[in-house]
Amino acid sequence: xxxxxxxxxxxxxxxxxxxxxxxxxxxxxxxxxxxxxxxxxxxxxxxxxxxxxxxxxxxxxxxxxxxxxxxxxxxxxxxxxxxxxxxxxxxxxxxxxxxxxxxx
Length: 104
Hints:
By secondary structure, the protein is mainly α. The chain folds into two domains: about 45 residues, no CATH class; about 45 residues, no CATH class. Helix content is about 55%, strand content about 0%. The longest helix has 16 residues. The radius of gyration is 22 Å and the shape is elongated. It starts with 11 loop residues before the first helix and ends in a 13-residue tail after the last helix. About 0% of the residues are buried.
């Protein structure tokens, strides 16, 4: 990784680095050095170890789990989840907007 989109990638960098599945550098020379080390002839052990750790960290069904959680949340909210944003705002004492209904 060589850059980050603030708030979007901030948690990914320590996760990748701390779990030994990648590196983070901003300096082009250090990026090149890291890649050269990883891709050097005979350095298959480091890449294989990184690959193995990556596979253990992988969550190939994560997107399905997220969709299931969102569907359950929508079901729990029932009709309130289907109200237009303006109606939700009015229920909270606000005009328009995308305010969430207040829990009782």
